[in-house]
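Succinate--CoA ligase [ADP-forming] subunit beta
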Amino acid sequence: MNIHEYQAKQVLAKYGVPVLKGGVAYTPEEAEQVARGLDGPVFVVKSQIHAGGRGKGRFKEPAAGDKGGVRLTKSVDDVRENAAQMLGNTLVTHQSGPEGKQVKRIYVEDGCDIQRELYLSMLIDRATSRVIIMASTEGGMDIEEVAAKTPEKIFTVAIDPVTGIQPFHCRNVAFSLGLKGDQVKSCTRLLMALYRAFTETDAAMLEINPLVVTGAGGVLPLDCKMNFDSNALYRHPDISEMRDEDEENPAELEATKHDLNYIKLDGAIGCMVNGAGLAMATMDIIKLYGAEPANFLDVGGGATKERVTTAFKIILSDPNVEGILVNIFGGIMRCDVIAEGVVAAAKEVSLNVPLVVRLEGTNVDLGKKIMADSGLPIIAADNLADAAQKVVEAVKEAQ
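Predicted structure tokens:
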């Protein structure tokens, strides 16, 4: 689960991480009130959306100006004017996609005397089961670009979960960033607090870009992104309340309400599979036969007819879907239940794209009979390769 910048800073502040004073606003009037409560005279007005690159982004509406989604202002009146330009308009960044995201809230923050911009993140390294600290002197840039062009400028430290973070870890990071004297001490305090916040909130990723060195020698996060392990949110009701459903894909949001694992992708072949590993294999073989999957969708091992019907509707809600591949291996899941759900959904939504179904396992013969007797133009497949080939060919013929 992702949260906004201002929410991430609220979380970090609870753990003693130094953050600049600021407040969230939903109207230009609220933005003005927040600014009047800050030290000033310089303020930063930041669009709050779940996408990076806000500063370099551009609004679709001309009335929003052409100054990006993060703006430096020098008066309370400027704060109000820029808030009015941002709120309600759509910001397009390299991470939002061409459709952009509508700005429904902004963050007004005190300005800062920036001497240097750095990069810092914490994330889970699945290969070693450790928290990794990633740091770079190239603050303000996309870390992917740094990794591609100057990988030697990225420094990483792995934290053993037995010992947790130690001062020497922090000093190694500080020295790699070229920090000296009191800056090293400030960085050490910051990293110790960040690690505690990361582990105790079950975060999956924490990114600070840029991390800045101030004129006074302090080190603090100027921006912050956090996302959390959704499976651990039951332990953190305060963080769960920060969820902004307006920022989520509607189909993915609907899927979570029905305990479905759905992720929208950019292809044209919709997939419905039971089991995450089988779903990944299904997507791979679709690519092997020359097409692209439109989604990842795992209905789980104990799905009901109703859940299968809902999954089918979610797939078809994507206008990019030109064909559907249902790939079920019936272990716990029964093939006849899947068949009933597929038939019910296809009839309800008036299916108008090719549908290929491959069933194997428990009650497979009954499942195939249900589909054969349905009167629907369902294409049966004998195995996974056969299914992938048939759906790709069916989509090409329908174009």
